[in-house]
Design goal:
Elements (H helix, E strand, L loop, with lengths): L12 H6 L7 H8 L18 H6 L5 H11 L9 E5 L5 H12 L3 E5 L6 H12 L19 H23 L16 E6 L4 H4 L5 H6 L1 H5 L4 E7 L16 E5 L4 H9 L5 H16 L5 H15 L12 H19 L11 H19 L15 H15 L5 H4 L17 H17 L3 E3 H21 L19 H10 L3 E6 L6 E5 L3 H11 L3 H4 L4
Parallel strand pairs: 1-4, 1-5, 2-3, 3-4
Antiparallel strand pairs: 6-8, 7-8
Helix pairs in contact: 6-7, 11-12, 12-13, 12-14, 13-14, 16-19, 16-20, 16-21
């Protein structure tokens, strides 16, 4: 349950009918064929509550976060300040929140900005769940209320929340003689908005995010709680519009011990799988900290690991562990060279083509042939290549030219009319070039590096989308987004001495970096990505 962001248990009818499709739910299919009126119990999660011990055991390494969330939600019927839950992808944020509400047996409304990709769909998704409205053939798959403007949403939401709260208060006064009915705890209703960082993609006016943060102040309903879930930290959402800042709760990346507890769960032969993790866990954790990526990589490797065994239920000896490691070692190197993608797994033909390409490269080196200029002689993930190019541009280009280099036209216009230079200007230019050569590459802060990285990857994404038959290399753009953590890639580049990390600047107070690669190396990396580096490189 703690392995992925999406929950693994049965989801509610309300959520499936208003926001996302419900999968792997035969009971729900029967209800769709014979729809029943939705009740307040559809605002609960799961068929029945779970115990606290089951909740903790479902999320290894998340004890502190779960206890913090339960403490912040407070006792029954306690008003709650908005919460802001953030962390990297696949750190168990959404799953933990949903299971906490299942443990507490409290009603909530869940909407994801991944499926609710514009304000109208987001507003109507929340209202449909509060009004217990199911989209079906009878109503033409329409929403209970059509709502496009934030002002209309506030009025409709206020009315719907008061209606639900009054019904919850009435249910509290009823007797509990019917054992088949699952009674709801308390009269609080919580709004959970997931994938909040995606609002920027479809909110061109930049009004929805401040509106959502001020929703708690606008409604002034003490029985309503508000929870935001995001992949980015709260610092990226600060504005000067004024609102009650939500309480942040961070879900950090899993450690190697956490991964071991996660992957050891539900294993038939614990000793055999533990010996497998001793081999693969450490090298793979240097590349990614995502559970879904590691799970996708470990599944075929474990099958390969067990091939020499006639009986996988035996406990391996030390001699057998060494033999299994020798059998698996070539496949580990191939798997590490793959860029991890979660939703779009590579076909067998693509894997075979990549292996054939590696064989041809090895044959050329044995015959003394030269390597093509467009290929680098070492493995580097696509996001690391873009990050290396960004660091090279940040070191070579003046910071004052970033706005003109990375504008909407995609770089400086090299076709500008050239003026005839005087002898004095030529001398000054030559002197400046000599001084620049003596000084070497300049330093830059992390903020500038990330800004350039975002600009060049967005430009590359747009250009690749125009090509037919291309799978795309966009950074975090939908299902084909790269899964590499940028900060983790930066740390790897620093450890490999492609980027040097200096001390903190006394004026800015932030750490500064410097690119150590040559221009030939940067051009070779750019050619492997088909990225026009010379278009963005400032020539004095």
């Amino acid at each position: 349950m703690g392995k992925e962001e999406s929950p693994q248990v049965t989801r509610r009818t309300t959520r499936s009918s208003s926001s996302t499709p419900n999968l792997n739910n035969s009971i729900q299919t029967a209800k769709t064929n014979n729809p029943q009126p939705l009740t307040l119990n559809d605002l609960l999660f799961g068929d029945k509550p779970i115990s606290f011990s089951d909740l903790i055991s479902s999320f290894p390494g998340r004890d502190i976060q779960i206890l913090d969330l339960i403490r912040l939600l407070g006792p029954l019927n306690t008003p709650t300040i908005p919460l802001f839950i953030y962390g990297s992808t696949s750190t168990g944020k959404t799953s933990a929140v949903l299971q906490i509400f299942r443990h507490l047996n409290r009603p909530f409304v869940y909407s994801s900005c991944l499926t609710c990709y514009n304000p109208r769909i987001l507003f109507e998704s929340i209202l449909n769940q509060l009004l217990r409205h199911r989209k079906d053939v009878g109503n033409g798959y329409t929403s209970a209320k059509r709502c496009e403007r934030p002002s209309d949403f506030v009025n409709l939401l206020h009315e719907a929340l008061l209606n639900v709260v009054n019904n919850l208060k009435g249910q509290m006064g009823k007797s509990t003689s019917k054992k088949s009915v699952r009674l709801i705890n308390g009269k609080m209703v919580y709004l959970i908005i997931d994938n909040l960082e995606l609002v920027r993609n479809w909110d061109k006016s930049a009004n929805i995010l401040p509106f959502l943060f001020k929703l708690y102040d606008i409604l002034k309903i003490p029985e309503m709680g508000l929870i935001f879930i995001s992949k980015t930290s709260p610092d990226t959402y600060y504005s000067d519009t004024g609102y009650i800042e939500p309480i942040p709760v961070q879900f950090p990346d899993y450690t190697e011990d956490d991964f071991r507890q996660i992957f050891m769960r539900n294993q038939a032969n614990l000793k055999l799988y533990s010996s497998f993790l001793d081999v693969v866990l450490k090298p793979f954790c240097r590349i990614t900290r995502r559970v879904d990526e590691l799970s996708a990589a470990f599944s075929p490797l474990f099958k390969k690991y067990c091939e020499p065994l006639s009986d996988i239920s035996i406990s391996p000896s030390e001699e057998m562990k060494r033999r299994l490691f020798s059998h698996l070692q070539p496949d580990i190197a191939l798997s590490l060279n793959e860029i991890f993608r979660v939703s779009s797994s590579q076909s067998s033909s693509e894997v075979e083509a990549r292996k054939e390409k590696a064989k041809r490269k090895g044959t050329m080196q044995k015959l003394g042939g030269s390597q093509p200029l467009d290929e680098v002689d070492f493995h580097m993930s696509t996001s690391a290549k873009y990050l290396l190019i960004s660091a090279f541009l940040a070191s070579r280009n003046p910071a004052t030219l970033d706005a003109s280099m990375f504008d909407s036209t995609g770089g400086l216009d090299n076709r500008k009319r050239k003026r005839k230079s005087s002898e004095k200007s030529l001398e000054l230019k030559e002197t400046a070039e000599q001084e620049s050569l003596m000084k070497g590459p300049g330093t830059f802060p992390l903020e500038r590096l990330l800004a350039i990285f975002q600009c060049i990857t967005s430009v590359s994404e747009c250009s690749l989308d125009e090509e037919e038959g291309n799978n795309g290399l966009g950074v975090e753009s939908g299902d084909s987004g790269l899964m590499s953590d940028v900060l983790l890639q930066l740390s790897s580049l620093c450890n490999a001495n492609f980027i040097s990390k200096g001390s903190s600047c006394p004026l800015e107070g932030s750490t500064r970096y410097r690119s150590t690669v040559s221009e030939d190396m940067a051009l070779k990396v750019a050619r492997s990505l088909k990225f026009p580096l010379s278009k963005y490189l400032y020539r004095r």
